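User: I'll paste a sequence; please echo it back and then give the predicted structure.

Assistant: Echoing your sequence first, then the prediction.
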Amino acid sequence: MNIENLDHDEVNKFDEIASKWWDDSGEFKPLHQINPLRVGFIKDRVELKGKKILDVGCGGGILSEALSELGAEVTGIDASENTIGVAKSHSKTVNSKVNYIQTTIEQFTKNNPNEMFDVITCLEMLEHVPSPGRIIETCSDILKDDGEIFFSTINRNPRSYLFAVIGAEYILNLLPKGTHDYEKFIKPSELAGWLRSSNLTSKETIGLSYNPITDRYWLGKDIQVNYMVHAKKEGLK
């Protein structure tokens, strides 16, 4: 059993390109482009000011910094040492208040047994770990009753393989080749099952679409490729 629920090949992959996180025209350009959509989706559903937020798999801090700028108290965690180094460095440059820690969610909860959060975000991360269900369960354990949680990942079907792997990595070169493993993509029904078994109630699922001709992303009803889920931990009434 992989106690840390960590794929070291995945961590090494992101270690190697960590320096590119804040180059908005480089490998992480798509994340910079979709970040306003992700932040908008979250802030329209949760009052962020003063909320204690954990950003799981925070990468270089693109989402973490944006949430912090909206008045949230943000902790960002990531398993990649180089990536967290970049996040900390950029945070100092822009005088951000995000607290970055190199760790896994399992190790974080072990080291901080009394930490609880109002909001947890885990975006573009579940498809990079051996057991995404365990990530969701651990997140639920440290989410306060009535807390809000957000996930985003990639659907698993022929269309998502064509768009997210062949199209994005090999034809359009939107992402580095090898970024995604199709076998790790997650069907919405699978994610919904993990949410239910982790005492989380799904509130909304929305799709993220891309037009390569206009180089534009938008949120909508199409969840066949990328999608985002808002769920809540219902407290005892």
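Strands lie at 52-56, 73-78, 99-102, 117-123, 143-154, 201-211, 216-220, 226-232. The chain has a mean pLDDT of 91.
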